[in-house]
What we know:
Strands 2-3-5 form a 3-stranded antiparallel beta sheet, with no helix packed on it. It has a two-stranded antiparallel sheet with strand order 1-4. It is of the alpha+beta class. The N and C termini lie far apart (about 80 Å). The relative contact order is 0.18. The longest helix has 29 residues, at about 1-30. A hairpin with a 5-residue loop joins strand 2 and strand 3 (about 95-105). The model is unreliable at about 150-153 (pLDDT under 50). About 25% of the residues lie in helices and about 20% in strands. One iron/sulfur cluster (SF4) binds next to helix 2.
Amino acid sequence: MESIKNYFIAFWKGLWSLLVGMKVTGKEFVTPKVTEKYPENRATLKIADRFRATLTLKYDADGNHKCVACGICQMNCPNHTIQIVSKKVTDEAGNTKRVLDDYIYDLGSCVFCQLCVTSCPHGALEFSNDFEQAVFTRSKLVKHLNRKPESSN
Ligand code: SF4
Ligand code: SF4
């Protein structure tokens, strides 16, 4: 008699456990899906504004950036990802100043720490959330940020 009693106790425990599991499964059936169907949803895909995909120079409406080639971002980068190349130019008044010649950024070695952005005294940098950065050759990850986006490589 005791064994029959134990049998039914174990049976109901097992059934209860099954129902609890099915409750969780049933809840997931009606929960809205969070997975994205990429790349089919490329046109409507919304990437978070704060997502750090690649470093860029900020350009104003006239296509100018604010970088003065001081090199502070390069010094603060822990991964030697940035290389600032500057040159001297002389204006019509005869004044010589140093300007940015090439802003070289290697996306392949960037750790997205954002130290460059926060250390720039001119607010010249920002991260773009353009996440489609896959290329077939590593050299194409080296970007020249002071070129206009349409002519950057
Ligand atoms: S991006 Fe900013 S910190 Fe870097 S060289 Fe230009 S002005 Fe200096
Ligand atoms: S995010 Fe960090 S690793 Fe990347 S370029 Fe800036 S300072 Fe260097």
